[in-house]
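#struct-pred

JT: dropping the chains for the assembly here, can someone run the whole complex?
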Amino acid sequence: MTLTPARARGADGTADTAGAARRARPAPVLRLAGGRVSVLVRPRTAAVYTGLLAATAAVFAVSLAVGDYSIALDRVLWALVGYGERLDLFFVRDVRLPRALAAVLVGAALGIAGAVFQSLSRNPLGSPDIIGFTGGASAGAVATILVLGGTTLQVSLGAIVGGVATAGLVYLLALKRGVQGYRLVLVGIGINAMLLAVRDYLMTRAELTEAMTAQVWMIGSINGTAWGQALTIAASCAVLMPVVLLLGRRLRLMEMGDSTAQALGVPVGRTQVMALLAASALTGAAIAVAGPIAFIALAAPQLVRRLARTSGTALMGAALMGALLLAAADLVAQRALAPTQLPVGVVTAVIGGGYLVWVLYREWRTGNA
Amino acid sequence: MSLERPSAVAGTEGADQAAPDSVVAAHALDRRTRAAARTHLLRAGGLLALLAALLFCAVLSIAVGAKDIPLPVVWNAVWNPDGGYDTSVVWELRMPRTVLGVFVGAALGLAGALMQGLTRNPIAEPGILGVNSGAAAAVVVAIFVFGLTSPTAYVWFGFVGAAVAAVLVYALGSRGRTGATPVRLALAGTAVAAVLQGLVYGITVIDEFVFDQIRFWQVGSLVGRDLELFLRIWPFLAVGIVLALALGPALNTIALGEDLAAALGAHINRTRTLVALAIVLLCGGATAAAGPIWFVGLIVPHVARSMVGPDQRWMLPYSALLAAILLTGADIVGRVLPATGELEVGIITALVGAPVFIMLVRRRRMAQL
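RK: done, full complex below.
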């Protein structure tokens, strides 16, 4: 029980002990360079990750092919490398590719950031909301739309400024002889509530059409994403994701409790700050491109843990799951009520929520709960 | 023999080394009983003070408003309604919102305390059972399908929506071998809430008329609620409040942890079901009446816990009174503060309550769950 991650703390332990008993079989270890580098290979995890990757690739390909002007898959492939009719080239390379890329990358960024926040706060409900990032970004963007009447770029900027300022404020207010997790969570709740109030106030006092624009932004949408936005999120992921993945091992140790991790040689404070910064920056980039898309950050880590039956946080898996969820959701948002395009946030909520309902229902049916 | 004496007792009773152990033990027991009695007296006094404060707020709420009516006239209008303009202001506008504010506040405070006690999660709030999103979805559908336009018209939709969502969440989270563990409940709630939120988003994006209504409803307000609405909803709130206050001792036992509580003979599943029922009544009624005011239920229990500690028998009444004071107080501030018009109570509770809450979090070591 001591080795079960601290996530189970304050919760019911029985489910985890049952899981641990099932997992007791030793996993094969892959040894490289004469045993100096070794990797634990868990067949189930590997299979789940491969499956997620394949599914994401499939959804990606389909989203390049279908639309009001549908293109056969072989022509899509030719268009990607620059051959084919001009219309094919235009739709595949200038319209659909940036949007599909943005969907996958934003999803991955949100998924991995969610996993970090859940690991740090040791709470399955932990998400970027906790440090007030999402709330600050929403309030910043809504204020930019409703008070300043800003352009898309200014709205993104407003969101980033709002998010960073709020996260910084929450951290500073929680700072008192070190940051204690519990205090951070509570301060985050308080600040978040204030921002929500400001946002709702602005929404009720604005003109209906402007409020509508703000609402669509708040739901989260990647309709009409251009290359510039896709490259923004790509660059952020390229820089920040390796940082987070490298911190993964320390984060897992810290889930056993800060003092245990300290005793095992983990620099707890520094890891906390670095992980928090990297995850916040990823969330910020995602929000700037797509708005605060609900549920991916919350659900992806939980879903992948249940699928792969890992005991601790699975950062890579959360990223893959997030990518798949958002790519699939965006495909549905485009096509469900075509030609009307829904904001993707509508679909992430329904798909993600529905899937989580199904997982819980299945656990109940098979008695695995 | 004196070596075996517990050091604390030996220290205080150091003078009479010769006294037999039974006498020492009796002394210690006596001292503890007296200390406990003092604490109880202090807490009961605090409860009375809070009751007085609530009474003061209620009187103030009837006496103060946008129209400047002198106190003697208000007094006269309360006791001898003469059908004049002042009487109708007092009886048709101020009286309903005051009574509603007290009831809704108490209900939200209790629901939050119960929810946190049930899930042992500091960021648990009644909304986790899907109550807010259930009510919102039902109200949105009611506006979309039937074109309803007033809070009194859609109060039943709100209540039924909240109840159905909560029952669904509880059924989903509580089946299986382990029953309603906190984590499963929270996940089920998140899942159902996400699906419903998606429905709300979808409809509001398609239909502007619905959005224009719901953006005012979702702020949470006591304005425009008549006596009719209160008469419809108060039995639910009253039953919920009584049930919640009666559940204190049972929740105390559950707080020991499931295994220990079960070993002590507590009916864990029965208690959980009753708590869930109370939350549905309280929160469904409050949300149906005033719209979602989520901040109060989340924060007030933390404040109450910092005053009286984790003992639910004291925590619950303190939460109820504090929340009622917060809500009526915020309603008065919202009426008096702006030069023209009013600020909704949901906005004021967050803007006024959050800084106070953060100050509390920083000043004291909050009692953990």
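JT: nice. Chain B touches chain A through 65 residues (CB under 8 Å). The two ends of chain B are 39 Å apart (CA to CA).
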